[in-house]
User: Which sequence fits this backbone?
């Protein structure tokens, strides 16, 4: 007899396995339809099991941010992009130390990073492919100026065993509702067009143009020249993804199962999921009054505030009145942080506990 | 030859061991001076090593929030308060399952919690002391109404092997600068006076009156009737604690060591400490423009925004210009979250790596 999820100890992240499979299938079908290479970012799940499910569905490889993520994923994948500047000797050495069977690509935006990874790669004569990172509006990393990016790409060609492979960008600034993204996407596409042509004129035609996020996932094919996209969040989705219309509420696969531990203060109920299991992530592009998550079964009830081990449910706009001991499931604002805060994720089939898996690539 | 901290792989939390010892000494001396029982909250360090250092300095016991914290700490301490409602069968069973040598106390605010812990305690005939939680302004958990608290205390006396031991409160709403807390502390003290007298009139004199936080730490002796205080953050302190004057900047013992990984975008430098190692905690009582931490050596430089693995340093109001590969140390807004995000903390003596220890009580 299967264990019902209501017997689990809380707080704990639980995944609806049917929703997860549907999310994986949908993105894989989109990639096939538009002949785009899907290279999912593992930051969201940090699990070789889910990475394998992505690869079985046709993903060309994986995207990682940290050396530990790359090491863990090298057990199941032989084509890994570390979309993070390989700066710091320890980081560069760990990356170059990945199994030789793994094709390693890094994304970077400085001469210092090129020199560091080149020096370490030369020691072991290991080929490392490089994407030069462009800033196309996110203003986080990447060259705002294409000429600077071209100059760096040129220098990479002189630094064997590095190989200039292409350009990368992250459209993290596009966070408008999906049906209101068109002007931002047009700007992005135009900027890509300009950049790619400049690279071609310089004799540095990029083999790969790598970009894309979950909010822009379903519009990736509209971006000029993009060959590869790297969404992460789409496996689980979250309240923010649903709010901007990049998934439906019913596509949110991961919830935090929590127990009501106090109703002593009027108009609120306190659950045992706080900052240390749910995070303190705002809804992007909306205000703090939106809280830190809302209930799967009562979307009108938000987690209005959090402390380390407490989440305060606002009951002022609902007739629902939970009792101490009741369980609820919270859809978090930002699922990647929830996963990182936990060591184990439980998989549900309907209401039954079917499996669980470690968040193997959390930690450092 | 000792390893300099600049050889560490980043991001990593590092602790100045001299500052840590000074912080531990200062709180212990305060407790002795005012004849208060110090029962530190382990949520900040989650480390049996630091808990032992607190106990050696005279702490009467420890405060925990989760069953896992209590289990880990039971190896070094035989007097544990779980300042969290023991709701949920799994939680109640784990608590009652602590070694018999441990005196277990729980804090709670509902008849449901009393019944649950009583039922489990009866099965193994294990004594459990109980604090009844009052809401004295924090509006998180606890009875706003003293008569309700008294009624629950009375019911506890009829539920052997539970024992009514005292009352608890958490003054988490007192976050003003230390020199501007006096009116809030006077209100708090008056409310305590009223509550304690009401308990005494009901024939339920509390043996223990347990309260206190790091922001109010040095004023605990001014609160009527308080016998025990439970600060956590004081071991490491953080940017918020310094901002409200409950410690000096030089008392911040834990920093996140990070590497500059990109300077491509003008007027900013990007470090490898983001939400997943530094957290996304606001400065309490101040606005979002204050960022998520500031640099130990350049306090005017703030982490203005964070994404999962990136922290954006605002260079607009400094002449300091870091280069890619430089290391910085960030004083976080809220140190408890930083510790919880990491598996290992490194201890420094000056600039030398002296030791490291696991965050043994993180996870569930």
Assistant:
């Amino acid at each position: 007899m299967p264990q019902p999820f209501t017997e689990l100890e809380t707080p704990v992240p639980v995944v609806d396995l049917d929703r997860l499979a549907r999310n994986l299938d949908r993105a894989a079908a989109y990639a096939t339809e538009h002949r785009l290479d899907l290279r999912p970012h593992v930051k969201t799940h940090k699990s070789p099991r889910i990475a394998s499910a992505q690869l079985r569905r046709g993903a060309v490889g994986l995207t990682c941010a940290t050396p530990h993520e790359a090491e863990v994923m090298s057990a199941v994948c032989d084509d890994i992009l570390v979309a993070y500047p390989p700066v710091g000797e320890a980081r560069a050495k760990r990356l170059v130390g990945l199994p030789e069977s793994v094709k390693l690509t890094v994304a970077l935006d400085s001469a210092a990073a090129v020199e560091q990874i080149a020096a370490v790669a030369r020691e072991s004569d290991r080929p490392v492919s490089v994407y030069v990172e462009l800033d196309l509006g996110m203003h986080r990393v990447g060259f705002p100026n294409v000429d600077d990016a071209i100059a760096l790409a040129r220098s990479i060609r002189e630094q064997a065993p590095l190989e200039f492979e292409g350009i990368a960008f992250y459209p993290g600034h596009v966070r408008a509702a999906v049906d209101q993204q068109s002007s931002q996407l047009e700007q992005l596409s135009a900027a890509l067009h300009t950049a790619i042509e400049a690279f071609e004129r310089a004799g540095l035609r990029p083999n790969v143009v790598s970009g894309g996020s979950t909010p822009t996932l379903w519009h990736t094919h509209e971006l000029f020249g993009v060959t590869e996209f790297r969404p992460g969040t789409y496996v689980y989705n979250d309240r923010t993804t649903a709010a901007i219309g990049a998934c439906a509420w019913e596509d949110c696969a991961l919830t935090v199962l929590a127990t009501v531990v106090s109703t002593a203060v009027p108009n609120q109920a306190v659950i045992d999921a706080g900052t240390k299991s749910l995070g303190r992530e705002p809804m992007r592009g909306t205000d703090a009054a939106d809280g830190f998550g809302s209930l799967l079964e009562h979307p009108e009830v938000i987690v209005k505030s959090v402390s380390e081990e407490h989440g305060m449910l606002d009951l002022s706009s609902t007739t629902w009145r939970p009792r101490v001991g009741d369980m609820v499931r919270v859809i978090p604002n930002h699922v990647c942080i929830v996963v990182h805060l936990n060591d184990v994720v439980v998989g549900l089939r309907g209401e039954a506990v079917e499996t669980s898996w470690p968040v193997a690539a959390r930690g450092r």
Q: What stands out?
A: Chain A has a mean pLDDT of 96. Residues 5-11+241-358 of chain A form a domain with the Lyase, Ornithine Decarboxylase; Chain A, domain 1 fold (CATH 2.40.37.20).
